[in-house]
Amino acid sequence: MSSTSSEPARSSGLTRVIPVALLLVAAGLAAWWIQLSRGLGITGLSRDVSWGLYVSQFTFFVGVAASAVMVVVPYYLHDFKAFGRLLVLGETLAIAALVVAGLFIVVDLGQPSRVLNVLLYPSPQSLMFWDMLSLGGYLAINLVLVLTAFWTEKQGLASRRWVRPLAYLSIPWAVSIHTVTAFLYAGLPGRPFWETAVLAPRFLASAFCSGPSLLLLIVLLLKDKPGMDVGPDAVRVLTHIIRYALAINLFLVGVEVFTALYSQLPGEVEAWRMAYLDPQGGVRWWMWGSAALSVIAFGALFVPAVRVERRYLALAATLVFAGVWMEKGLGFIVGGFEPSPLGYVTRYSPTFLEATITLGVWGTGALVLLAGIWLASTARAAEAA
Question: Can you list the domains of the chain with their CATH numbers?
Fold first, then answer.
């Protein structure tokens, strides 16, 4: 089937996502209204487990946003022109991920007005203050870059000179947003599961494989849409980036396991035992599932047939994304609270309303991403005309 004849199917496929996303947003808003009325008591959170699904999703999507640097670096620093069409998609994905991450902080605070306290009463010694500044700055940079790219492509103009320095600035800024997020956990005393010097590199490595995996899935979905095919070279290099980042992530996890078990430090041994071996804990299924999916995907990406076959490559990218999400999207955060500094174990599981609000935030991010894809396709259609 030619790309022309497959276009209606592809377009209708993307169009069908919109009502699903709108339905999720509506359900999420209804559940959030109940949370605003009754408070965070409708969630599974407690005094001992104060961070759960909301903060886990925030952490994960900050990583997805930071992963846009994996497209910016090859294009701007190494002059890899094959990433030219991929650049806008990567930055659009970063914007959608930042919107999602910000919304999860809003719903986690209980009252949205509390967000203003960070700005009205700044506390430079607080990592949350710096995290908000870094995320806001990175969002502004990507908005400028994406909107400029849309306008230049639609007008058929060359890229503006000032875009390159701004893109250079986005590189360390992307690293900073996930580094500061990692410091939020690594700097907390009494949490051996989080207290490690390699947490920031591990966060970055997991981000640089999960974000590009989602970007690769989007690229494969849009492959037959006119003007949205990024080309085989971009897909090939993006696949290599995912594979190498996943290898580093698995290595860093192995280093942490060795340090904890070989040193036999009681706090660290107990934290890792609770995360992976506790027969009564639900976190272990997330952690083992993440490890299994990541290892399977890592092996699959070394098979040439997987890297060249579209459906197999999409499946491998899905496994990478799901594997990282299972750990960073819930297991890692909740695992850090078991046991508490006093040795107590408080179980946590998301409630129905909590999960519904989470789906609503995801739906909002999907709408932002679809809007960006539509703008990109419109601009390129105008350029082609």
Answer: 29-384 (1.20.1630.10)
- Residues with Cβ within 8 Å of 376's Cβ and at least 6 positions away in sequence, in order, are 88, 89, 92, 150, 153, 228
Closest CA relative to residue 272, chosen from 325, 332, 186: 332
- Residue 4: Cβ within 10 Å count: 9
What average pLDDT does range 280-285 have in this prediction?
80
The pair phi, psi for residue 132, each rounded to 5°, is: -65, -40
What pTM was estimated for this model as a whole?
Answer: 0.91
d(CA 274, CA 262) in angstroms, rounded, equals 17
Question: Quick check: helix, strand or coil at residue 1?
Answer: coil
HSE-CB for 145 with a 13 A CA cutoff: 28
pLDDT confidence bin for 15, thresholds 50/70/90: confident
Residues 6+ apart with CB under 8 A from 56: 328, 329, 330, 332, 333, 334
pLDDT tens string 206-257: 999 999 999 999 999 888 777 778 889 999 999 999 999 999 999 999 999 8
| Other Cβ atoms within 10 Å of 121 Cβ, number | 8
In sequence order, which ranges of 121-231 are alpha helices (DSSP H)? 127-155, 163-186, 199-221
pLDDT > 60? residue 7: no
Q: Which residues contact 256 (CB under 8 A, 6 or more apart)?
A: 196, 198, 202
Residue found under tokens 């992307």: 174
Tokens at residue 81, please? 């022109």
Total Cβ atoms within 10 A of residue 124: 7
pLDDT at 323 over 80: yes
User: Is residue 143 exposed (0-12), middle (13-18) or buried (19+ Cβ within 10 Å)?
Assistant: middle
What are the pLDDT digits (tens) for 172-197?
999 999 999 999 999 888 888 998 88
Copy the structure tokens of residue 35: 């949370």
Q: Which residues contact 200 (CB under 8 A, 6 or more apart)?
A: 178, 179, 182, 183, 186
Residue with tokens 């980042």: 245
Q: How far is CA 237 from CA 24, 107, 233, 342, 351, in A?
A: 34, 37, 6, 48, 40
pLDDT tens-digit readout, 107-122: 998 888 777 777 777 7
Give the span between the Cα atoms of 22 and 338, in whole angstroms.
Answer: 36
